[in-house]
Amino acid sequence: MNGRNADPRVVADKIARIRDPHVAALNALSDRIADAEGLRRGLVPYVDPDTGGVNARMLVLLDNPSTKAETGTGSGLLSLDNNDRTARNCREAYARNGISWSDVVHWNVVPFPVAGVKNGSSTTAERARATAWTREVVDLLPDLEIVLLLGASARDGWKRAAIVRRGLYVPPGNIPHCSMRGLNTAGGRERFESAIADVADRLRAAIA
User: Which of 132, 129, 150 is nearest to 140 (CA)?
Assistant: First the structure.
């Protein structure tokens, strides 16, 4: 199933709403990151307004923007509707486990396009350079309960950010990135599915 962002009209509608109140601060941060990196605004993907934005209870951290998230080659959005398998794998896992998009916001530990191979991993230097942005994102999420780290780069970036926040749950273990490459590692799909079920249970329990 193609992501809805394969349709330019869907993307245009989302882009028209990137300054909506619940995502305005996060997308202003995307612009500030672009300015700091010497990039044109829009090259650091914006948070999809169809997710929870600053009202999110769960922050899902990945590595760096894929070509399907970058402006020009993709939607320009950090979106579960992006037309790639990474977004699809998360989207379908959330649906299976009853996770509402309004409870979730996605971000990358390296929010700007990396210097290396497209759709490849970030470097340790890039992750170190980006730690301040990860801290700012967390500061913008007052209702945050869970940080889900998908992949080794996300775990490394989170560790480097050295964020301490009382009551925050970070699921343990080597949870893979939700790309096919990550899920196809030995035991990867099982660890991913287990982590999604875990956070879904916790989100439900908190409002029971």
Answer: 132
Report DSSP state, residue 74.
B
Of 105, 19, 16, the C-alpha closest to 61 is 105
Helix (H) or strand (E) run with residue 12 in it: helix 8-15
For residue 105, what are the β-bridge partners?
Answer: 59
| Rg value, the chain, Cα | 16
CB-based burial label for 39 (10 Å; 0-12, 13-18, 19+): middle
Q: Residue 148 and residue 208: Cα distance in Å, rounded?
A: 21
**HSE toward the beta carbon, residue 126, CA cutoff 13 A:** 19
Going along the chain from its start, the domains and CATH numbers come out as: 4-207 (3.40.470.10)
DSSP 175: P
- CA proximity to 71, closest of 11, 21, 139: 11
26, 100 Cβ separation under 8 angstroms:
no
* pLDDT digits 0-9 by tens, 54-96: 999 999 999 998 755 555 556 899 999 998 888 999 999 999 9
Reported as a single tens digit per residue, the pLDDT across 167-177 is 999 999 999 88
Round to whole Å and give the CA distance between 111 and 186.
28
Looking at residue 176, what DSSP letter applies? P
